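S.,

Sequence below, as promised.
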Amino acid sequence: MKLKILLGVVMLALSAVASGSAFGKNEDGCSLQGSWFGFHDWPGGDGLVYFISQVTGKNESHGNTIVDYPGFDLTLTGMFPTAVSGSKARGVWERIDGYTFAHTAVVFAVDAGGNALYIMKLSNVANLVDDCNVDHITDGRMEFYWPWDNPFDPEVDPFYGPIPARDHDAYRMHVESP
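The prediction came back faster than expected:
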């Protein structure tokens, strides 16, 4: 009986090491997977970014991302005054190294009739720091395409952009006990 308990404890410990800690860190780097809250207010009050993202994948090398930017101005400061709604940003990620990941996602903006007005493509690099709990987002850019364009076709140029995005941070969400 003691051998079964000891074997159970060893197997549990090995599975914990193989899957990384509760915060997503193991000997190979960080896990990007999880839920993230992004908030950054730059000095001088000249901009605020906030978002919520969900990062998933079958392994730690690549996967899918869904990002919600609730405060994003879909009219693009009046360039598309009829824009009233947009999809969540949906995209993909892949590991660059143990603590660094590349992201690309797209958003559709539509008018009140549901007609697509443009596609926004977002790309950036995620650098996990602070024991894998902070995602320092760098090398961001936005590009805008017409709804009939394929934003992943290298022969298609955006009608606007690329626009560099400022570096900002996201914070890993954790379960809090009541």
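Residues 1-23 have pLDDT under 50 and may be disordered.

Coffee later?
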